[in-house]
Automatic annotation (TrEMBL), chain A:
The keyword Oxidoreductase applies. This is Coenzyme F420 hydrogenase subunit gamma. Its EC number is 1.12.98.1. It comes from Methanofollis formosanus. The keyword Oxidoreductase applies.
From TrEMBL, chain B:
Its EC number is 1.12.98.1. Its cofactor is FAD. One of its GO terms (molecular function) is coenzyme F420 hydrogenase activity. This is Coenzyme F420 hydrogenase subunit beta. PANTHER family: 7-HYDROXYMETHYL CHLOROPHYLL A REDUCTASE, CHLOROPLASTIC (PTHR31332), FORMATE DEHYDROGENASE SUBUNIT BETA (PTHR31332:SF6). Residues 95-247 form the Coenzyme F420 hydrogenase/dehydrogenase beta subunit C-terminal domain. Coiled coil: none annotated. Residues 9-86 form the Coenzyme F420 hydrogenase/dehydrogenase beta subunit N-terminal domain. Keywords: Iron, Iron-sulfur, Metal-binding, Oxidoreductase.
Length: 268, 287
């Protein structure tokens, strides 16, 4: 009796009540995306203390079934021959206000694009699709692994979008828009995107961002233009997303100093 | 807004004769990095260093003044400096990165900071981003054609290249000067430059160029808190001679005029792209 009272009392004294609820849904992923989230170190605690309750994450908490949540961070692609995976992604869509494809696998299939079955002891598990193949996805965080800082920024902005004042909502909306546009653009990614949508479009200016972003060094800059070793490419989508000529939203970028300060401020 | 946000703008040049000797203009980039390196404001800078082909830059991470000196001067061709941005925080182990680049490269730096998608740990490690003014750039083979064919001098013999007063200039080691009207060079421009909406590196911490200031001097915009801190300390340490921009010719009016021309022209290109085909257009990265 006494103990229960104590617990209730502590709960009431929690300083922040207006947190958003976040869940981590693990499909055919490697947990590297979650590790990236955790690699915000004390920043992760700050987020969990002040801005977000982690209501679901099989790796970290003992909640067995997908609950209602504001934001679902979905990691991994979906195996069509695994019934529970297919059910889980559908359930995540039903239970979450915002579905985020976290990382290259959820967004674009990534390494699971190369799956073709034939391995013990489920040789029939051969078809893997990015989550947008089965459900509507609101926002992409590409990358293999996605960066801790990008996940942090999305968490902060999602919080501001759902709980902030009008000005903060507007900023968060503007910030998140290109990541939402990426989700609308499609779920196929490859180093070839740099050809199709940047160089072939007359937009490449030779900055080298794509080469820096590539996790497997598949891109080298030759005479100032990206050359893609397509057999090295794992189809993560980082190069195109990082390219300043994929999206460049001046309204947000012009405020880079203020936004960087804001992010630093809320994380302190 | 064509000149971006800034806290102050002056005409300036380095007080270090060694730097000035091989600098393009007032030696602002080399001097400011050299000072920042010495003071620990940065622990390395990504610059356009030399390669084994003449006037073809190779991005390098300079951690000594000698390496900064070796990168002086404008190479009118692509130097993909951002390609080293993540590596600088990895095998090079930098915590405070300096980087120089054209306006589009400053945009790339800020995008990497705000949307670090393949750039883990980069956002917090940009200590000093120096932008240079840029009207357009050229593929290496274009530069070859302009210098070797149109100017009729070997790239190997060139000491300095410059764009100014409506002309493209090549100065050789042995004192010859060749020049061609800029209109001859237009067809050689990098196509991606024609959608560029920034002339004076609006997103840099400090940006600098030759336009506006007399020969041997530079126009310098100090834009951010980071920029102001570094610039203020460098001035206090006697690194630069400065003059109020109002007192030099041709001054900010010309900078504003050229910036407006570039942006207006390229806005038109963007608009034309929207209806480039028949009922179809080309992609616009800005919307
Ligand atoms: C393609 C191009 C176009 C330019 N157009 C204009 C213009 O229209 N109007 C104007 O006023 N100024 C222009 N500039 C800038 C100007 O030529 C000088 O670079 C600038 O004034 C710096 O001079 P400085 O003496 O301070 O630099 P320095 O001390 O000589 O150092 C120059 C620095 O620039 C870096 N650099 C050289 N070439 C490149 C490159 N291709 N890409 C990235 N970094 C490079 C070098 O690594 C070095 O660190 C242009 C520069 C470039 C590269
Ligand atoms: S990141 Fe830079 S170099 Fe790579 S495709 Fe985009 S504009 Fe070209
Ligand atoms: S080229 Fe590299 S960054 Fe681009 S999709 Fe392939 S693996 Fe990813
Ligand atoms: S004109 Fe623009 S896109 Fe071209 S090199 Fe200069 S800054 Fe980059």
């Amino acid at each position: 009796m006494d103990v229960e009272k104590k617990v209730e009392k502590t709960k009431e004294e929690m300083p922040v009540v207006e947190k958003i609820t976040v869940g981590h849904v693990h499909l055919s992923g490697c947990t590297g995306c979650l590790v990236s989230f955790a690699d915000n170190y004390e920043g992760l605690f700050k987020i969990l203390d002040d801005y977000a309750d982690l209501v679901y994450a099989l790796t970290l908490a003992d909640v067995r079934h997908i609950p209602e949540m504001d934001v679902a961070l979905v990691e991994g692609s979906v195996c069509l021959q695994d019934k529970s995976s297919v059910e889980e992604i559908k359930e995540a869509r039903e239970k979450a206000k915002v579905v985020v494809a976290l990382g290259g696998c959820a967004a674009y299939g990534n390494i699971t694009r190369f799956c073709r079955g034939g391995q013990w002891n489920q040789p029939q598990m051969e078809s893997y699709v990015p989550i947008a193949e089965l459900i509507d996805v609101d926002l992409y965080i590409p990358g293999c692994a996605p960066t801790p800082q990008q996940i942090r920024n999305v968490c902060i902005m999602a919080y501001l979008l759902l709980k902030g004042n009008d000005e903060q909502k507007e900023l968060a909306g503007a910030y998140l828009k290109p990541l939402m546009d990426l989700a609308q653009r499609g779920d196929e990614a490859c180093g070839c995107d740099l050809m199709y949508d940047v160089i072939n479009q007359g937009l490449c200016m030779g900055c080298g961002s794509c080469a820096a972003a590539c996790p497997v060094r598949a891109i080298s800059m030759e005479y100032g233009k990206p050359n893609i070793d397509r057999d090295l490419c794992i189809k993560c989508g980082a190069c195109y997303a990082q390219c300043p000529r994929s999206f460049f939203n001046f309204d947000v970028m012009n405020e880079f100093e203020g936004i960087s300060e804001l992010i630093k401020g809320v994380m302190e | 807004m064509v000149l971006g946000n800034y806290k102050s703008v002056v005409a300036a040049r380095s007080t270090d004769n060694e730097i000035l000797k091989g600098a393009q203009d007032g030696g602002i980039v080399t001097q400011l990095f050299a000072y920042a390196l010495e003071e620990g404001i940065i622990d390395g800078a990504i610059v356009a260093g030399p390669s084994d082909e003449p006037w073809k830059p190779e991005p390098v991470i300079a951690t000594t003044k000698a390496e900064l000196l070796a990168a002086r001067g404008t190479k009118y061709t692509l130097s993909p400096n951002i390609a080293l941005l993540k590596e600088a925080t990895r095998s090079y182990g930098l915590d405070r990165i300096g980087i120089v680049g054209t306006p589009c490269q400053m945009q790339a730096v800020r995008k990497a900071q705000l949307y670090p998608i393949g750039m883990r740990d980069v956002p917090d490690k940009i200590a000093l981003a120096i932008g240079i003014f840029c009207m357009e750039n050229f593929p290496y083979q274009s530069l070859e054609a302009m210098v070797e064919d149109h100017c009729n001098v070997k790239l190997e013999s060139v000491k300095k290249l410059d764009i100014g007063k409506g002309k493209f200039w090549a100065y050789t080691e042995r004192g010859a000067v060749a020049q061609i009207p800029l209109k001859v060079t237009h067809k050689y421009e990098q196509p991606g430059c024609h959608v560029c909406l920034d002339y004076v590196s609006n997103l840099a911490d400090v940006s600098t160029g030759s336009v506006g200031a007399p020969d041997g001097w530079s126009t310098v915009f100090v834009r951010t808190q980071n920029g102001e801190n570094a610039w203020g300390k460098a001035i206090a340490a006697g690194c630069f001679e400065t003059k109020p921009i109002e007192e030099v010719k041709p001054g900010l009016d010309l900078v504003t005029k050229l910036a407006t021309e570039k942006i207006t022209k390229n806005q038109k290109t963007l608009e034309a792209r929207a209806t480039f085909g028949v009922g179809k257009g080309l992609r616009n990265p800005y919307i």
